[in-house]
Structures are given as structure tokens and as C-alpha cells.
Description:
By secondary structure, the protein is an alpha/beta fold. It is built from 13 helices and 12 strands. Strand 3 (85-90), helix 4 and strand 4 (108-113) form a beta-alpha-beta unit. The protein starts with 9 loop residues before the first strand and ends with a helix. Bound molecules: pyridoxal-5'-phosphate. The site of pyridoxal-5'-phosphate has 13 residues, from helix 3.
Amino acid sequence: xxxxxxxxxxxxxxxxxxxxxxxxxxxxxxxxxxxxxxxxxxxxxxxxxxxxxxxxxxxxxxxxxxxxxxxxxxxxxxxxxxxxxxxxxxxxxxxxxxxxxxxxxxxxxxxxxxxxxxxxxxxxxxxxxxxxxxxxxxxxxxxxxxxxxxxxxxxxxxxxxxxxxxxxxxxxxxxxxxxxxxxxxxxxxxxxxxxxxxxxxxxxxxxxxxxxxxxxxxxxxxxxxxxxxxxxxxxxxxxxxxxxxxxxxxxxxxxxxxxxxxxxxxxxxxxxxxxxxxxxxxxxxxxxxxxxxxxxxxxxxxxxxxxxxxxxxxxxxxxxxxxxxxxxxxxxxxxxxxxxxxxxxxxxxxxxxxxxxxxxxxxxxxxxxxxx
Length: 372
Ligand code: PLP
């Protein structure tokens, strides 16, 4: 086996993004046991830091010990059960995955789907919800495959009208663009550690409202999952008002939690508004630079957002060759997924990378790669 020596990359794809160096340093701190009083204290601080980032008072806010998909699966498997109905707004690949999770949780699922780049009209959701009693409306806030951003308020309003809970995938938005869970009234949200929150992959930060937890408590049967059972997870992470004694559930990924705790500290020191503004100005700079290179965004202007930029590959340009040349220059960007493969590039402006100097380096490498 060779000694570990990963190349130095500027990670400007859809994630992972380069973590803040403070986060990587925190991850190499000495280990304590996962039931050590020091670690239990860190778990509490991590939950409260995550609440601040989600802008929520939801007690049930924690990083699931697995990637963003696992956090979303936790939400779907606990909020839905056999016989429930769910409506899922699909604006791309990640919406399809939410629909599949809902089916696997036992729900009857109605999908409201739009072409790539578009967002769902809440009037369509209204019609779907009006058909039959529905427990949950699920949607993706920012669809990483198309770059489209689905506005949150109208989705919540239409769900409330029909008495449905609302679950949101904010994997490509939390920490980068405005989200205020309590003000918006979202019942459950799931993100990831490796994009705008500025840590490596491995955790699925979620938050669940008291209303959604009441629905979990009223389930007819236990969830079809043991590892992601919210009831069991909070015996370990601590129920509201419960004493600090924790029941073993799994061995927490201690070093990942160290890193995530530090990432939350970095965010709260910077301030959420300042962080959102930094993402927006890095995105604006990217779009201006792309314009000079003759490249426009695939996503219709009204649906674009700062964190993920989906670029239309100019005609006659070889997708794979350009990305290979970028990598030779130490810069990663990604190709399209599914129907958009070969048609778009995906460029993330996320977390520590949402900085003028990094956008500049990206644009320089892209310009050279297109010319060479
Ligand atoms: N949802 C969206 C919108 C994503 O972009 C991703 C990953 O990029 C996921 C879910 C899955 O997250 P993870 O890869 O952390 O499991």
C-alpha cells in the first residue's frame, strides 16, 4: 500500500467542497469515548449550533451518522408508514429519490414532475393534495442536477391548506442561501455536511418540528428501519428535558462530529446573513466571468440560485476533455447527471469556496482549459 498523499484540488463541483482548514484540524484532535461526558457535552453543543444554523427551536435537530441521503431517509421512514399518502414535487433526480424513499416507507405516492430546469407550480401541488387526504408533501429546495431553486413559502402554504406536513431536502442550500425553518413553518428538513456547511461528507443534519414528532409518536407501527428510528436515536442524543444519561445506540463518528462542531462554530462566528451575502457575491462574480467566456447558465434566470451553477456547455466543446484539463490544473468541476449528461457542467459555490479568490482561480482554469 502506498502512503496517503491526496492531490491538492479546488473542489468546485456539486460537493464535496473544500472544508474550512479549521474543520480538518478539529478532526485530527485526540479521541474520547462516545459516551464520555466531554463528548456528550459536544453532542449538546452540536445540536444547539445546528438549531441556530437551521434557525429553529426544534429540539429534534441532529446530525445523522451517515451522509445527507440517510438524513432524508430518516425523515421519510419516520414520517410515513403503510397506508399513508405523500405528494412529492420532482424537479430533477433528487426529487425522484425522495419519491422512491416515500414508496419504500410504504406510502402511496403521487409525483408532480416538471421538465429539467423548471420548478413546480404550487397550483399543481394544490390539485394533487385536494384529491385525497395526504400526510406529507416533500420537495427539494435546490435541485443539484438542474440548478433550479423551488421557493419554500408557497409549498408550505399549500401543504398547510390541506393539513399535510412538509419535508424539504436542503442538501444544496443550508448555509449558503436564506433558510429559516421556524419562520417558514417547514416540518422536517435534511441537509449534508459537505456543501455549504463546510465540513467533509459523512453526516446528515436534520431537524424535525414538534408537529412532525407528534405524527411520529402517533404511528400505528414502528418504522421499517432500526438505525434511523428517531425514537431510538434521541434516546442516545437526548430527549428534550431528559437527564444527560444516554442509551447506547451506535458508536458516534467522533472525529466527524468534532469537525462538524467546528464547522458550525465557523458559520456562527461569520453570521448567517454575512455567509449568505458571501455566497451571493461569489455567484455574481462567477456569472460575470462566465459571461466573458461566452458561457451562460442552463437554468432559467428566475430559478437560479447562488450555491449550484449549472452551465450550458457551448456547442462544439468536448465536455470530458475540458474537465480533464481542469483537473490537470487542480480544479474539479462536474458533468451533468442523467438527461443532462454531456450538456451541462455543474459548478458549486459552497462554504469555504464561496470566495472571490477561488472563483477567480476557477474562471482562470476554465478559460485556459477551453483554449488549450
Ligand atoms: N439531495 C441533494 C439535492 C443532493 O445534491 C445530494 C448530493 O449531492 C443528496 C441529496 C445526497 O446527499 P449525500 O450525497 O450526502 O448522501
